[in-house]
From TrEMBL, chain A:
<dbReference type="GO" id="GO:0003725">
    <property type="term" value="F:double-stranded RNA binding"/>
</dbReference>
<dbReference type="InterPro" id="IPR000999">
    <property type="entry name" value="RNase_III_dom"/>
</dbReference>
<dbReference type="InterPro" id="IPR014720">
    <property type="entry name" value="dsRBD_dom"/>
</dbReference>
<keyword id="KW-0687">Ribonucleoprotein</keyword>
<feature type="domain" description="DRBM">
    <location>
        <begin position="302"/>
        <end position="372"/>
    </location>
</feature>
<dbReference type="InterPro" id="IPR036389">
    <property type="entry name" value="RNase_III_sf"/>
</dbReference>
<dbReference type="GO" id="GO:0004525">
    <property type="term" value="F:ribonuclease III activity"/>
</dbReference>
<keyword id="KW-0694">RNA-binding</keyword>
<dbReference type="Pfam" id="PF22892">
    <property type="entry name" value="DSRM_MRPL44"/>
</dbReference>
UniProtKB/TrEMBL annotation, chain B:
<dbReference type="GO" id="GO:0003735">
    <property type="term" value="F:structural constituent of ribosome"/>
</dbReference>
<dbReference type="InterPro" id="IPR024388">
    <property type="entry name" value="Ribosomal_mL58"/>
</dbReference>
<feature type="region of interest" description="Disordered">
    <location>
        <begin position="195"/>
        <end position="232"/>
    </location>
</feature>
<feature type="compositionally biased region" description="Low complexity">
    <location>
        <begin position="109"/>
        <end position="119"/>
    </location>
</feature>
<feature type="region of interest" description="Disordered">
    <location>
        <begin position="89"/>
        <end position="133"/>
    </location>
</feature>
<dbReference type="GO" id="GO:0005762">
    <property type="term" value="C:mitochondrial large ribosomal subunit"/>
</dbReference>
<feature type="compositionally biased region" description="Pro residues">
    <location>
        <begin position="120"/>
        <end position="133"/>
    </location>
</feature>
<dbReference type="Pfam" id="PF12824">
    <property type="entry name" value="MRP-L20"/>
</dbReference>
<feature type="compositionally biased region" description="Polar residues">
    <location>
        <begin position="89"/>
        <end position="98"/>
    </location>
</feature>
Length: 405, 232
């Protein structure tokens, strides 16, 4: 049996022990570019209890920095407090450690980086300390993994459904929901004294309008056709112009925006620290595991026409609606069960309270059955990354496209 | 044969209302044992495996087929499911011919119908079951028709002339009947915008006279109809 470490249980109540050597090999890397910042912080933090850590950091970084400003007398008025918590504070944040273990992240993943992913550019304009660059990387990775999963597993999906599925899996709302399910809480106001385990961003006051950056629409030309949407706009084919996270500096944003930037930045930092293999596993566990009923994303305007076009295109016999069963034809609530047949094969079946309703629903069901085809064996392109052996690769099915009436 | 008594006894074994009638001795199900014996019904045949060995029981409730199960016709040529489906179809056809009635339609079940013998005049068996694979397909909802493409340029000119001459008499339906084509086709070749606008204004005026109830009912019907293509 494993013994419980009593000292670890109530460590927040005990006197803080002396800072140990950093266990993380990345810590030095994380510290190195921060030198200018550490010096400025040194002059400001007179009474804060992190003095010891700062001294140690300076020892670590003295080789490549001029020691001049470090020796300068501390002055409270000249240097304002940093806008976000010091990276060193992450080591002592209970929330961050809890978040890391809750997400089952490897202990190799440094808490300082986890703390940085929680700082939205609206809280800290310094790109070396906010999550803007990480969220750009993570957003690209997320859309890459989702797109390839959807396109390889459902090769026949119409483009509008692909867009909707992308939005459902990694859209802003989904990412904000995921962040709240992970237990991310927001700080009321960002600042250096705030616990680094809280999401830091400049809050949009209630009743205020969205900042103009988040309200921009793409040019009409981009929305003109599906091809334009694929090429020009973001992965959701949305009408909103994509906003660079770097542009949101000092802008009050809603919580959803900050939460989604955190999730993206976490993916990006996982990719940098733990490698793509673990990110793919993380993506599978936290994003693809979410239930999405793809069949509810369809909206057919003329299902019967679409189906007959499809059958003509694929060389099947023309679809015929046949009455499989019925009850209460002369009553107030009749039920008709209609199947759509092509030759002797049934393509779809549905129930309706009128013959027309059942017929149209059956045609829609048949179209969904066509579009929701899923191949048995799928090899994702990303699964062959960094692999010399390419014999496992099997080309995926590529469909000729949706039915256009 | 079985020792259990009919369920109807529960209802029959009541005291006569009039005390002038002789008292009939009735045995009530007053003990646990009698109740247990009474309610010990034979299991449905579909739940009773034919062999003593443990088997799978497949007795799903009736439901519309899932759209995630791609029909045989929609599978690409190189999909392995194609062979599996074909093998299953052969097997089920053979089984259905070998057995007189499937196990879920044995006597004593609601699906059982005594006159299940197919006759030449009535091809479908009377049992409340989906038809056998070899049986004729169900009747079509609307009479199937073939497109004829029989109208030539002169006919189209004639249609346009008639329509222009008297659009009130030669409506789309009358012309479609005369030329044996669809009224959609008449609308394609001889569209009368002036009359269409007039009729639309008349309808608009008629809709304007509707009360709240009728208008809301029509609007709801339109909303329901929009859902047909969405949540099938």
């Amino acid at each position: 049996m494993k013994r419980i470490r009593i000292s670890g249980c109530a460590s927040q109540l005990l006197a803080r022990n002396t800072p140990r050597r950093p266990s993380c090999p990345y810590l030095h890397r994380a510290v190195a570019p921060h030198n200018h910042r550490i010096q400025t912080r040194l002059q400001t933090t007179a009474a804060t209890p992190i003095d010891e850590e700062i001294d140690i950091e300076i020892e670590a970084g003295t080789e490549d920095s001029t020691p001049g400003p470090v020796k300068a007398p501390r002055n409270f008025k000249e240097k304002p407090l940093p806008p976000s918590p010091h990276p060193q504070a992450a080591q002592h944040s209970v929330k961050l450690a809890a978040l890391r273990s809750r997400l089952s992240l490897h202990s190799r993943f440094p808490l300082q980086t986890l703390a940085r992913t929680l700082v939205h550019p609206s809280a800290d304009p310094n790109p070396a300390f906010n999550n803007a660059s990480l969220s750009v990387l993570g957003g690209n990775l997320l859309s890459y993994y989702t797109t390839e999963w959807i396109l390889c597993n459902y090769p026949r999906l119409p483009m509008s459904v692909v867009f909707a599925a992308q939005y459902a899996y990694i859209g802003p709302v989904a990412l904000a929901t995921i962040a709240s399910e992970w237990g991310i809480e927001a700080a009321a106001v960002p600042g250096s004294e705030v616990d680094p385990g809280l999401l830091q961003f400049q809050r949009l006051k209630s009743g205020e309008k969205l900042p103009s950056l988040l309200r921009q629409e793409v040019p009409w030309k981009w929305r003109n056709t599906t091809t334009h949407k694929i090429v020009a706009t973001d992965e959701f084919g949305s009408d909103q112009a994509p906003v660079s996270p770097h542009a949101l500096v000092n802008t009050a944003v809603p919580m959803e925006e900050a939460a989604q930037s955190f999730v993206r930045a976490l993916i990006g930092s996982l990719h940098l620290h733990l490698g793509s293999l673990l990110v793919k596993r993380f993506f599978r566990d936290h994003f693809l595991s979410r239930q999405l009923d793809l069949s509810s994303l369809f909206d057919f305007q003329t299902p019967t026409r679409d189906l007959s076009r499809l059958c003509a295109r694929e060389g099947f016999e023309a679809p015929v609606a046949r009455l499989v069963s019925e009850t209460g034809r002369k009553s107030r609530h009749p039920v008709f069960i209609v199947g759509v047949y092509s030759g002797k094969d049934q393509l779809g079946q549905a129930a309706g309270s009128s013959l027309d309703e059942a017929r149209i629903r059956a045609a829609a069901a048949a179209l969904k059955a066509w579009y929701l085809y899923r191949p048995i064996e799928v090899t994702l392109p990303s699964s062959t990354e960094n692999q010399v052996d390419t014999s496992r690769w099997k080309p995926n099915m590529v469909d000729c496209g949706e039915v256009i009436v | 044969m079985s020792t259990c008594k009919p369920l109807a006894r529960i209802h029959l074994a009541t005291r006569p209302t009039s005390h002038l009638q002789p008292l009939i001795q009735a045995r009530h199900e007053s003990t646990t044992r009698r109740h247990r014996k009474l309610l010990a019904l034979p299991e449905a045949p579909s739940f009773t495996p034919s062999s003593r060995k443990p088997t799978l029981i497949f007795n799903p409730p009736s439901a519309a087929p899932s759209v995630y199960h791609t029909p045989l016709k929609f599978l690409p040529k190189d999909d392995r499911r194609k062979q599996l489906y074909a093998a299953f179809q052969t097997q089920s056809t053979q089984t259905s011919y070998r057995k007189s009635a499937p196990s879920i339609a044995q006597p004593g079940t609601p699906l059982y119908a005594p006159t299940s013998a197919p006759s030449p005049s009535y091809p479908q068996p009377a049992a409340h079951l989906p038809p056998r694979p070899s049986a004729a397909l169900p009747a079509a909802v609307r009479a199937p028709y073939e497109k004829k493409y029989h109208l030539d340029q002169n006919d189209i000119k004639e249609i346009q002339r008639l329509r222009k001459e008297d659009p009130d008499h030669w409506t789309r339906w009358r012309l479609a009947e005369k030329f044996a084509c669809s009224n959609f086709f008449i609308g394609l070749v001889a569209k009368d915008r002036e009359k269409a606008g007039r009729v639309e204004r008349e309808h608009e005026a008629a809709r304007g006279r509707w009360g709240t109830r009728r208008r809301e009912a029509r609007e709801d019907r339109g909303r329901r109809k929009a859902l047909w293509g969405r949540d099938a």
